[in-house]
## 1
Amino acid sequence: MPAAQKGYFMAKYDLVVIGAGPGGYVAAIRAAQLGLTVACVEKEAKLGGTCLRVGCIPSKAMLESSEKYHEVGHTFATHGIDVGKFSLNLGQMMARKDGIVSELTDGVAYLFKKNNITRYHGHGRLAGPGKVAIEPGDGETIEIETTHVIIATGSEVATLPGVEMDWDRIGGSTEALSYPDVPGHLVVIGAGVIGLELGSVWKRLGAKVTVLEYQPRVLPGLDVKMGKRAHSIFKKQGLEFKLGVRVTGARVEGDSCVVEAEGMEPITCDRVLVAVGRRPYTDGLGLETVGIELDNRGRIPVQEHFSTSASGVYAIGDVTVGPMLAHKAEEEGIACVEHLLTGYGHINYDAIPWVIYTDPEIAWVGQTEEQLKEAGIPYRAGSFPFAPNGRAKALGSTDGLVKILAHKETDRILGVHMIGPRVSELIAEVAVAVEFGASAEDIARSCHAHPTLAEVVKEAALAVDGRALHR
Ligand code: FAD
Ligand code: NAD
């Protein structure tokens, strides 16, 4: 425990980071690398934030395990593997997931030690200019001084009016990552990223899954063509969708839940996952002590280089404007700290990849066709399916395609959209291409190993110029 926590003296740091999620902990490490004295305040016992504890990592562990379970029952036989009788050991699946989370959160604690970052466990808040107060939960308050503060307090589950959350049967993603048994019938409210990822997990493990979505389509932010393709694939997998549905209420009744929506008979089910977005988390942060006001969506507004309206106070990650993604938070943390020390910090919001880890995966970077049309930007599109690709056939995963959108005159890549096997990895190539301002021709002329899924990216780039080879 740091000396300041024992009340011996008021510690002073160059930088205090509030929140140890991917934004906060990475900012703390980068600042320490650059020679600052750094403290990080985290209210949870484990470091790593939403992402490591109850977000990216446990959800991907469950996606992976449930995919394997599904494969044993559905695709092993086609490979000539007869496994006979098999069964689900959900306890072991959860234990594996929890083990991965622990390894990674312990890894952050190790990195803090290695980089001499002082860790404070407790709720942190601004206590006037240059001061941060910490409440460890034992009734005491510790105050520390600092030249700079980075707020990286992340986000929390958004709820819906009329939906009575008991944070058990009617809960959010955190509950859905730890159900004690497979629900007979799970209703998911929201066909966004969490709804489809966690809906897929429980569908594969045997639940009937009904997804209720307010918009007339699934994944509303996605390129329309890719969204339609995704919808039809998920339907084939057995997920049930009710689109254009406005949920008006949900409540627990005995051992069941009842979900009500306009124009629909009430649904009785075993569990409800509310996945209608996340909202910035700023509870008890003392923003008023330095004069920071939230915007109309509850976010901390930032100007250039993540500075807030208060001198020396910065905000990064989910708590501020922009996509709620772990890698966006990380990049902002690094750019914020580097700008503070060197006067230069870089983040290119046009080159931030998105990935949805369903099966098949969905990934994209840059603009959609609809956005380009709306902006009046002339473009050429080239697409190529996974179906004829040798590696995809060997994997037994041929659903999907890659679509590249390039400027009609300059050929510069403006957007890339993928649905298919392992596109979470393929998207890195095109994110780098977008960052470097590459043309579709650049990708088309680059040698891609054979047989790989990446050949589909090359073919899509060739298709922009109407000269795909294997079609
Ligand atoms: P957070 O990770 O939310 O961290 C904020 C931290 O601040 C928390 O640990 C919190 O306890 C702490 N804190 C808050 N207030 C205080 C305070 N006053 N004092 C002290 N500590 C405080 N993103 C991806 O890019 N890829 C994915 O695959 C992905 N999967 C996800 C799956 C799920 C189920 C969920 C819920 C989210 C997922 N996300 C994913 C989103 C990702 O988790 C967030 O974008 C990311 O964690 C944001 O990082 P952050 O550092 O801004 O905030
Ligand atoms: P989301 O914004 O992805 O999807 C929410 C969905 O709920 C939308 O389709 C929206 O139209 C719908 N909706 C909103 N109100 C509704 C209502 N009243 N009735 C029915 N549907 C309604 O949000 P999410 O899935 O909760 O995820 C939150 C965020 O977490 C994501 O936006 C993303 O930033 C992050 N996340 C990322 C990943 C990843 O990168 N793989 C995974 C999980 C979460």
## 2
Amino acid sequence: MGGNDNSNGNKVPDGPKRPIFHYMIMFYVIGMILLTLLNAIALPFVVNRSVQEVSYNQFLTMLDEGKVKAVYRGDTELQFTAENEDGREGLYKTGNFPDADLVNRLAQADVYFSEEIPTQVSPIAQFLVQWLLPFVFIFLLGQLFIKRMSTRIGGNAMTFGKSNAKIYAENETGKTFADVAGEDEAKEALKEIVDFLHNPEKYAEIGATLPKGALLVGPPGTGKTLLAKAVAGEAHVPFFSISGSEFVEMFVGMGAAKVRDLFKQANEKAPCIVFIDEIDTIGKKRDGSGMTGNDEREQTLNQLLTEMDGFDGRKGVVILAATNRPESLDQALLRPGRFDRRIPVELPDLRGREAILRVHGKAVKLEDKVDFNAIARATSGASGAELANIVNEAALRAVRMGRKIVSQQDLEESVEVVIAGYQRKGAVIPEKEKRIVAYHEIGHALVAASQSHSAPVHKITIIPRTSGALGYTMQVEAGEKFLMSKEEALDKIATLTGGRAAEEFIFHSITTGASNDIEQATKLARAMITRYGMSEQFGMVALETVTNQYLGGDASLACSPETARIIDEEVVRIVKEQYQKALQILKDNAAKLNELSEYLLEKETITGEEFMEIYTRKNPTADTKETEGES
Ligand code: ADP
Ligand code: MG
Ligand code: ZN
């Protein structure tokens, strides 16, 4: 077990997770030891040779003994290398006597001779070669090593204790509440913080301390980050921000250091705003198992809690955090004195959407008669970010079309781009399939129009989208709706099944094109029973609980398997019933179904008005067309 590196590396933050400077220190220490050893043992042979002075007679004796290896004759002295007592090579010098015979004797003894003394290495050069060069070499090697380590881990490891997940500091965010459209409740709640930052004395006087932190809670793209910046902008205070997700990648201990760093900087600049985006990544509920190996996150969270408790709220450091999964936050974060104030930032309503479109519309050149209300009505459920995107897409489309101004049509088209995906250019749909799609869409529209509780049809198209949809029917409520009655829910299910019903009625065969409709119808029918208490069987009993309010709204069953079976039966019953209803509507309106489908097939896209015009028109030729679709 002990020898198995793999299993070990998973649990313990060993190996690459250990701070890089541990390796660096080890590297330099080993390098210096090696260098010293090298100098002590090896180098004396090459450079550092002390010169020993001997008499000329001694030199001659050594020459006779065959110990001399090489002789260098200078003007005043003679240097030579020879084997010394312990068998090693030593350097000697002696006076230079005019010995004419010397050259011959040396040649006879086969000793190297030169008339020039090799220049002795100066002490400075010696130091350079012996210490400085190797040291520089080791240092450069170390640098290379750091670079490779840090690019592999991702980040600049030279900043060691300093922040690595970037702390973004802005002295002026340049955003104000005017940049945030809608979200009036959130703005109202944040105005108090702005006021506090403006004149903290007012609060101190009365003895009131403002909450240290406020948590902005809401689905992605609703403007949480924007709101936090606007608070700083309104109060004219610096804005420090850091994103929770950046902590995840870091070395152990780095996250905590980072948090400390963040609060240190913030304290120096108080009053200011500290914004922690995506706080759920560090503030997740801690589970007791301890085997998750995520002690890094836990350390970071603990440090955050410590810092929040530690600093003086009256100094004017206000902490804002944002999350879209509040239910997964650690309870410790929500305790009084921490993020005890929770500010919901919801998806915009009709008025909000229109306001957001206006804010972003200011940035682009628009034609005079742009109707933002129509766009807002067609984008129920869109977030602020999506609406901003719609305006931008419209501008891009205008440029593509070679225009200098954004038109209503650009906006309408970009709604579809953002919501349904790009128009699939060049995708050729066989005529027969196109016909099926046309009948399918008209099926939806007809069922919707024939029922009293359905939203009016706004647009029908059979132009395929890159998202995979071959066509769709867009229904738009006349105003904003918050509640759905049981009748409306049932009518909606009937409308959803209308597409498939049309296929079956006209072509006597069914296709895969209805998969999304089926999914939606099933979901709605299920929710009616389990969450809205709309079935006679169960009444007002919550059979499901929503586990994630903002992301997808997944629900989990909270009932016995027996009940679950009954729910399934009930769902099937509801959808079947509505399907039959839809089929009957289509049978009753067969002439209109044919006429409208042929019209759509020809036009590919028709508006709600065109649809209603044909739908309400008295049509004398109705009966002749009844069976045409079957060909
Ligand atoms: P979040 O942080 O909630 O995910 P952001 O604040 O990052 O959302 O919003 C992304 C972008 O969407 C903003 O920069 C802004 O352009 C736009 N946006 C979102 N909500 C609004 C709003 N209420 N008013 C104006 N613009 C908005
Ligand atoms: Mg954000
Ligand atoms: Zn459909």
## 3
Amino acid sequence: MKLERVKENPILKPKKENWWESEAVFNPGVTLFKGKILLLYRAIGEHLHYISRFGLAESGDGIHFERKSKSPILMGEKPWEMGAIEDPRITKIGEDYYISYVCLEIPPRFKSSSDYKRKIFPRTALTKTRDFKNFERLGIITPPGADDRDVVIFPRKIKGKYLMFHRPYNWVGKEYGVKKPSIWLAESKDLIHWGNHRVFLEPRENEIKVGAGAPPVETGFGWIFVYHRVEEKPEKCYKAGLMILDKENPEKILADFYPVLTPETDYEKEGDISNVVFPTGALIKDGKLFVYYGGGDKVCCLASIKLEEIKKSLKKP
Ligand code: BMA
């Protein structure tokens, strides 16, 4: 099974006139909002400090986007995010849109190896909004001491608990029971305090790490969960996979298709980082799954697949 790129790719490119998004726009969160599709994207305006902020774009068809604002819609304001905010993922729960995003205390290219020893590393925070104008910061949601990104939250409670996938990079070794950075599942009653962390998916041979991509999308036949694996050889490469998870017990993997998207085009093979497709958002439109992803840490892209095709593949032995 493969995702099909739209011919309009890249659907969003850097904008030279805007200082904060002149170099790269990538890894976007996506959601339906008042009949439109919103793209909340990560933006870079310089390579020296490499500070990311978020911009907002809107579309009627999910393919052609217009920027909503000349300024960033969100940027690092709180002490824990002064260095940058990165890779937003959006989950709608009730009337609220929750955005999980990576936050850095120090700009990425200011960091030294001693900062890591001082435990200054990426963590993930949550903010919520109803209008994409006012945002309520809910603080860090990843566990203390965890170098943690790729957080995606399920859009409803399952067996009375909210669920999230996350990827604590430094949770490896005997005490954690995994050899390489893995995807973990955690649960919460309030979306802020998370516990009962357990391993969901480990990297295989020739893979450096794995991570969640888009917040899971619910269908009649299960959750569609788009994720990534980072292969080591012949060169470092980010590819996307697609799983179907059981509706009431998402730990049960009903199907796993990998890879469904591999860097092949120039905008994926050459960017600020080469050989990257990095899915961060997904939604269902016109009977298709739309997967939004960053290409080469430089541009926003879209690839899709008919839901029928996913459903049919489940029936194959
Ligand atoms: C990951 C994150 C992403 C990025 C990807 C590819 O570790 O930093 O934001 O898109 O690497 O460079």
